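Q&A log
Question type: sequence-to-structure
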Amino acid sequence: CDNAYGKRNEDLVLEAPRANIPDGVELEVGKRLQARSQEGQVTRVVITKITDETVTLDANHPLAGQDLTFEIELVSISAA
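Response status: OK
Response body:
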């Protein structure tokens, strides 16, 4: 998994006060959002937990920490 999307980084999992979520944003576990840091950087996050006070956001790539396995079909071989 280190050569694909890397290991999960728990530093990219953040708890935000619900008050920081803009009005009109539907909160639902699994929903993907774009978030802006205090420095103005935009990143994609997924909601992983919702409480009365906080929303937990995960900015890891969805495939981080996972091994990738592909099934292929070789259709031809050509001489170089």
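Response note: The first strand starts at residue 13 and ends at 17.
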